Amino acid sequence: MTDRHDSTSAENQKTFDLSPTFARKLLLATTCGDLLLYLLFRGDIPRRDYIACKVGLGLIISLTAFEMEKKTERPKTKRFRSIFATLSAMEVIFTVLIPWLVILEGVFNKAQTRKNGNLLASHLFIFQAQIAGECVIAMTGERRKWLIFPFTCMANAYRAVTIGTWIIRVMEEDTPESRDVILPAIAGCLWIYSSFVFIPFEWYPQLKK
Question: What is the per-residue pLDDT for 17?
Answer without folding.
Answer: 60
